[in-house]
Amino acid sequence: MASAPPLLELRDLSASYGHVQALKPTSLTVAEGELVTILGPNGAGKSTLLRAVTRLTPGTGQILFQGRDVSRLATHRLSELGIIMVQEGRGLFSQMTVRENLILGGYNAGGDRVLLEARLQQVFDLFPRLKERVDQLSSSMSGGEQQMLAIGRALMAGPKLLMLDEPSLGLAPRVAAEIIATLGELNCSGLGILLVEQKAPLALRLAKRVYVLSLGRVAVELPANEIGSHHDLARYYLH
Amino acid sequence: MIDAVQLAQNLVNGFGLGLIYGLIGIGFCVIYNASGIVNFAQGVFVMLGGMVCHTLLSRLGLPISAAAVLTIPVVAVIGILMEILIVRPMWNRGASTFAIILATLATQMLIEQITLLTLGDQPRTYDSFTAGGPLKLGGVAISYQLFWVLGFGTLMVAGLWLFFTRSRMGRALRACSQNAEAAALLGIPVKRMLLASFALSAALGAIAGILVTPSQITAYNVGTPYGVNGFIAAIIGGFGSASGAVAGGLLLGILQAFAIVAFGAGFKNVAALTVLLIVLLVFPNGIFAGVKSLWARRT
Ligand SMILES: Nc1ncnc2c1ncn2[C@@H]1O[C@H](COP(=O)(O)OP(=O)(O)O)[C@@H](O)[C@H]1O
Ligand SMILES: [Mg+2]
């Protein structure tokens, strides 16, 4: 039996801003149900990688999703297929309420009220805090709550692959831990996750594999549990 | 001495015209909120509303209801063509918002000239939707058309409010204006939304033009004054909600009425532009946002 194609496979994906190639040709895979972490210092090209996958920034190279070449599809078409990204800085609709943000997350459901209501319940079960604040403007919430909303909104879209760009940035360690734990739960229920962080001692406990990005290219790819035995990496990314 | 009856008459006229300015202002807000573009061709949709409706009435002999219902989609299609032929190619090539705004201004002149060449330069008008009138209150005459304007204005504001807060598409339009990238990531086709905003905005302009023509005249060149006053109404209202634009329009219409009574008809536009400058200087986010934030600072 042929093994199933990976959920996401990038083949020599690169992207430039003007003349600067911020992402050098990069290849990586995320298997079905896998949680993969991408680490790297500020400016390494992590956001550019995610933006190239979602085609917010045009790139060259191949993007395969469940074996299908989706390299030429527009951002909203990729979203319909189930590639959902939580942007750096969360990208909330700041002048809308929590409820409106969530409902917009379910845009792909095409106005199917039953489906929307079911997804809304799941999000509220995962983040009860959002239910309490449902009629509040998203911009009036704390950073942690905003990140929960950003993730909740992404879940409303029915993702097959959830990509997150530094979700713990700017959050208190306890709140960040809570959010990373939730991602772990989601992964346990079968959701493929590509998690980008600068440093991620917590995420590394959940991840099976890690890519370390440096100066726009993959410097190292290794199983997450081996990062401790690389002293230079461990010193930088685990503490 | 200012004559009280004359003042009241001018206020009634100013109220009616101000309502129209507000409706035109809503059209500006719809496109601006979906894209950040100020469509300076908004006035031609108003002009076309009156001109197309007049042409259907006079050439085909249609009743006003049928002519109005046909005019709205015709003008909406012109809005769609404008987006496809001018705005979208520029947008796709990464033109600056400023360049696109200039292009809308050029489009305004182009459509005016095409209208001049095809329909001529004769000013024209048509009868009020309901015969009879005006209603006399003391010495003040209130035309029946004012009630049509009032009725449709209320319907449009309520309808748009429902559309933008309750419908999937209206919400998606607002999402595009607040964060286009986030909207695209959630599956919202941002470019199609821009197209929809031009169609909606053109339709709104057409409705304003159809409503105002019986009490004013229409001609190939009325788009500019309507556009400018609608733009001022939108600015006063803070370029946000439909009700803000209508309130801005009413304020503008009434101020113009005072200016006419106090200084003569020639001062109508001076008053409008003075209001615009004062609002821009004192309340750069619109009077209503300005008042709200003053209020917030006090409490
Ligand atoms: N919009 C942009 N225009 C020009 N250069 C950019 C832009 N965004 C990012 N860069 C550059 O690309 C490189 C990678 O940035 P980024 O992908 O944001 O890194 P990271 O997310 O890992 O911090 C950096 O050198 C950054 O300065
Ligand atoms: Mg980044």
Main interface pair? A-B, 25 and 17 residues
By CATH, the architecture of the largest domain in chain A is named 3-Layer(aba) Sandwich
CATH class of the largest domain in chain A: Alpha Beta
The overall pLDDT average of chain B reads: 90
Per the principal axes of the C-alpha atoms, what is the gross shape of chain B? globular
CATH class of chain B: Mainly Alpha
**CATH superfamily annotation of the largest domain in chain A:** P-loop containing nucleotide triphosphate hydrolases
For the largest sheet of chain A, list the strands in their spatial order: 6-7-8-3-9-10
| Tally of distinct domains of chain B | 1
> What's the pLDDT, averaged over the residues of chain A?
92
Which topology of the largest domain in chain A does CATH recognise? Rossmann fold
Main beta sheet strand tally, sense and closure of chain A: 6 strands, mixed
Order of adjacent strands in the largest pleated sheet of chain B? 1-2
Which structural class fits the helix and strand makeup of chain A? Answer: alpha/beta
Q: What does the main sheet of chain B amount to?
A: 2 strands, antiparallel
Gyration radius of chain A, rounded: 17 Å
